[in-house]
């Protein structure tokens, strides 16, 4: 059967928690919370066990026969195939063996399928739900079929017999698992820290290898309404992956979702309850702190922009810069990719001179040393450039800084520098630059303004007069363009039209 719209189908292969904080019930709530009419998510379930639970323990756990697991899977396949499978509670070796074999067969027809396993065996109250031989069977048979494993610290040690996190993760990655998210929720600390290790095999999703793991941390919320938090972190990750986020961005989204849910929990009694499921997170205070990949920010924030960016035109030469100025563009970037050093200096110097006007803002792309030496207004740097640029010197000289980003992870990374603006791309396919990561699209773009309200955000990549209104409807107020301006036959009219779209959006939304 053909799937007819853009609904992403997720399967949860897990146990029923009748108290509805964890297990299949938590997966349903979490996935539903991320579903929208524009990007619907549909969660199907394969129940592996029925448990009898309450806030302080598990009274009973009965495994579902493998034959019935198989029938559930066959029934689901009659309707639709999943793009993501999230596995939770497995109870015995027989279930593991069936699942390993089933996944091996399924992958033959679904090469892009993502399989996650949250190896729950012990509930947060300490009750064991699995049979003693479970993990042995998991390591031997199931792990080679898993893309992303999400153990807590206790499960990590039980799976590997290693108390050392890095060593344990190495052992798991050697079994064929492609990424491991170690959940630190159970550690006794004032911070809740989660670690994501991504092997080379997962990098195709766009992760830049600045470090070999990502550490995200948030202040621990001191209350008892947290039953199922680990399950929900894994399901939020499944939802974000099904929505098309790259793994590192899905990690940020999932942790932000958990922070939002724990900030507004559902209290059932004085000492029992669950986190709340309140939709895609939308407040900056829920964002975690990025503890790895630390940049060395200057002591102070970069100077603010002297005016809003609004329409931001990027040009490859001084001749094009003059054309843009004549057409009425007020925010410009000189982006020269190939020329000899002498001409480069000359071009940058000329551009700075041409833009000596109180209403005009000129950013120099890449060449921060010349920008600094020649007294430019601002520079625009990419994520790699900020590793090596002398940021303190740029800040102290009063230059404005704009930084590229391509998702939540890179936004968190760049935000550490307190730049003058952040660019987000590529929104649509572009012919101007070879992009390796995932496109943002309008749905993802619409999530950023609420989470990064204190810094100007400019959208870039494939933007033109036909799609500008749709981009502005996401709440983004600044548009950067290369090709659309270069190809405009009447540049003045084109600039007026684009500026009008932006002004209308400012008043309309
Ligand atoms: C406004 C704006 N956003 C993003 C970019 C891309 O910058 P960078 O990542 O440094 O890539 P190159 O432009 O150097 O290819 C930009 N230039 N401007
Ligand atoms: C230079 C550049 N940077 C991008 C990013 O996402 O960082 S996209 C891009 C190209 C933008 O050109 P056009 O408007 O012609 O699509
Ligand atoms: Mg650059």
TrEMBL record:
Its cofactor is Mg(2+). Pathway: Cofactor biosynthesis; thiamine diphosphate biosynthesis; thiamine phosphate from 4-amino-2-methyl-5-diphosphomethylpyrimidine and 4-methyl-5-(2-phosphoethyl)-thiazole: step 1/1. The keyword Lyase does not apply. 2-[(2R,5Z)-2-carboxy-4-methylthiazol-5(2H)-ylidene]ethyl phosphate binds at residues 430-432, 462. It catalyses: 2-[(2R,5Z)-2-carboxy-4-methylthiazol-5(2H)-ylidene]ethyl phosphate + 4-amino-2-methyl-5-(diphosphooxymethyl)pyrimidine + 2 H(+) = thiamine phosphate + CO2 + diphosphate; 2-(2-carboxy-4-methylthiazol-5-yl)ethyl phosphate + 4-amino-2-methyl-5-(diphosphooxymethyl)pyrimidine + 2 H(+) = thiamine phosphate + CO2 + diphosphate; 4-methyl-5-(2-phosphooxyethyl)-thiazole + 4-amino-2-methyl-5-(diphosphooxymethyl)pyrimidine + H(+) = thiamine phosphate + diphosphate. Residues 17-273 form the Pyridoxamine kinase/Phosphomethylpyrimidine kinase domain. Mg(2+) binds at residues 366, 385. It is an enzyme of class 2 (transferase). The keyword Magnesium applies. Its EC number is 2.5.1.3. Residues 317-484 form the Thiamine phosphate synthase/TenI domain. GO terms for cellular component: cytosol. GO terms for biological process: thiamine biosynthetic process; thiamine diphosphate biosynthetic process. Binds 1 Mg(2+) ion per subunit. 4-amino-2-methyl-5-(diphosphooxymethyl)pyrimidine binds at residues 333-337, 365, 404, 433. One of its GO terms (molecular function) is ATP binding. Keywords: ATP-binding, Kinase, Magnesium, Metal-binding, Multifunctional enzyme, Nucleotide-binding, Thiamine biosynthesis, Transferase. Condenses 4-methyl-5-(beta-hydroxyethyl)thiazole monophosphate (THZ-P) and 2-methyl-4-amino-5-hydroxymethyl pyrimidine pyrophosphate (HMP-PP) to form thiamine monophosphate (TMP). Belongs to the thiamine-phosphate synthase family. PANTHER family: HYDROXYMETHYLPYRIMIDINE_PHOSPHOMETHYLPYRIMIDINE KINASE THI20-RELATED, PHOSPHOMETHYLPYRIMIDINE KINASE. HAMAP family: TMP_synthase. This is Thiamine-phosphate synthase.
